[in-house]
Amino acid sequence: MKEKIILSTVSAWELGDQFESAQAQKNEALREAKVAKLDGDLSENAPYQAAKEKFRTMGRIQRRLTREMDHLLTEGHRLVDPLTWVNDGLPEAVELGTVVEIDLDGQRDKFLVAGARDHHVPSEGDILPIPYSSPLGQGLLGKREKESFKVTIREAERSVYVHSIRRPTRDEILAIFPVLKGG
């Protein structure tokens, strides 16, 4: 049986927001096309042609988002609130919701092992979210401190050394997912 996809609530909200934005832009393009159509000859009417193309583009985006949401629902995805990753427990190994400090080919980085769609660059802090489903995320899962391993990322084998594993602080989660500050 296929493993369930794990999404942060923030990523699910963003997917819904993208869908609503595409719908609003599609409706706006339809209104623009109706107004431009009043100017006559449609083959020579640049505003009409532009509005029509915008309408088609937003329709394609909306269909892609619908397919993605349908796929996630069909697969029975799991939602997780990133604030639940903040706790006093000491992780023995890398798991979803842990902060990992690693050397990746000799360069020191900090990552939060996060949901399948959490791959944005936060505007503050030095911790990047990395999807648990990415090649590096998959390679990190289950690893312990002081462990070394190799992982293939974009067809290149990379060396990884795990320095430390810990739980994130509330401030770190809010820096990575600022939308949670309102809740």
The N- to C-terminal Cα distance equals 35 Å
The CATH superfamily label of the largest domain reads Transcription elongation factor, GreA/GreB, C-terminal domain
Low-confidence stretches: none
Strand proportion: 15-25%
Number of beta-strand segments: 7
| CATH classification class of the largest domain | Alpha Beta
- Give the helix tally: 4
What would you say the CATH architecture of the largest domain is? Roll
List the helices and strands and how they pair.
Elements: E1 6-8, H1 9-37, H2 46-74, E2 78-80, E3 99-104, E4 107-114, E5 127-131, H3 135-140, E6 148-153, E7 156-166, H4 170-176
Parallel strand pairs: 1-2, 4-5
Antiparallel strand pairs: 3-4, 3-7, 6-7
Helix pairs in contact: 1-2
What does this structure look like?
By secondary structure, the protein is an alpha/beta fold. The protein folds into 2 domains: 6-80, Orthogonal Bundle (Helix Hairpins); 82-182, Transcription elongation factor, GreA/GreB, C-terminal domain (Chitinase A, domain 3), CATH 3.10.50. It is 39% helix and 23% strand. It contains 4 helices and 7 strands; from the N terminus they run βααββββαββα. The protein has a 5-stranded mixed sheet with strand order 5-4-3-7-6. A two-stranded parallel sheet has the order 1-2. A hairpin with a 2-residue loop joins strand 3 and strand 4 (107-114). The longest helix is centred in the N-terminal third of the chain and has 29 residues, at 9-37. The radius of gyration is 22 Å and the shape is elongated. 23% of the residues are buried. The model has no long low-confidence stretch (mean pLDDT 84).
